[in-house]
Amino acid sequence: MRHDHLSRTFAALSDPTRRAMLARLSLGEANVSELARPFLGEMTLPAVTKHLKVLEKAGLVTKTRDAQWRPCRLNGAPLKEVSDWMETYRTFWEESLDRLEEYLATVTMKKTTGGRKHGRAK
Amino acid sequence: MRHDHLSRTFAALSDPTRRAMLARLSLGEANVSELARPFLGEMTLPAVTKHLKVLEKAGLVTKTRDAQWRPCRLNGAPLKEVSDWMETYRTFWEESLDRLEEYLATVTMKKTTGGRKHGRAK
Questions:
Q1: Maximum CA pair distance of chain A?
Q2: Is ipTM beyond 0.85?
Q3: Which residues of A touch B (CB under 8 A)?
Q4: B119 to chain A nearest CA, in Å?
Q5: What's the whole-model pTM score?
């Protein structure tokens, strides 16, 4: 089911370790021990491989067929689905930015009124 | 922490009920009972309000100040953060689409070779 797949992708992305793994893989293929290395100070190897399995199940990481080395590769396809979902809401986050800009403009306006003019703080 | 906030947003989006609530709110403000109505056949009101709380904690839904009615509103700001994160990986999902197109082209090529020429199927 499409919904479940999207849910699985979002869930896979909801962890900083897993996002860090994707960031590493965005630089190029890596095998499991290479991927695990930066995290082994704070977690065990089984914990790291569990995170990796979540990414694999979501289809975000695939293992290549190289029998000896079996490097992991980032697969962007599930992110396309996230992007399509996001697109529906684009007006909302663009609006919220507009509101932020309006708010900041109001704040700046208040600062610069009242008889004095201040320079912009660095 | 930025990481935690992004994780919370992704986790909030990892459920079809919560995404359906956002879809409803993308059409306009709604109070809790209006939001809950479509789900009450399959889950209890406390279950629905729990989902709503997850969305609120992630900042995706805010309750307005209208004392009597307190309608919920979609807040797109956390989605901007998701969008920024996604942007880093754009080349990957675009690449994966390119690979899909290449694959489809190969399949079409195989179908059309072998001594015969076919017109493009409609």
A1: 75
A2: no
A3: 3-4, 6-8, 10-11, 13-16, 19, 22-23, 26, 74-77, 79-80, 82-83, 85-86, 88-97, 100
A4: 30
A5: 0.78
